[in-house]
Amino acid sequence: MFNGLNDRDIHNVVLLLKRGGIVALPTETVYGLAADATNPEAVAKIFVAKGRPTTHPLIVHIESFEQVADWAIDVPPLAAVLAQKFWPGPLTLMFKKAHGVFDEVTGGKPTICLRVPNHPVFLRVLKELKKGLAAPSANPYQRLSPTSARHVMLGLGSKIDAVVDGGRCARGIESTIVDLTDVGDGFNVRILRKGPITKAMLEVALPGLVVEEPDEHDADVSGNMFRHYQPCTHASLMSLESMEKYVQDPTKKDKRFAVVHYSTTDWNNESVVFLPQLPETKEGYEYEMFATLQEADQLGVDEILIERPPEGPDWVASLDRLRKATAKTSSRCKEPAS
Ligand code: TXA
Ligand code: MG
Question: Is any atom of ligand 1 closer than 6 Å to the C-beta of 222?
Answer without folding.
Answer: yes
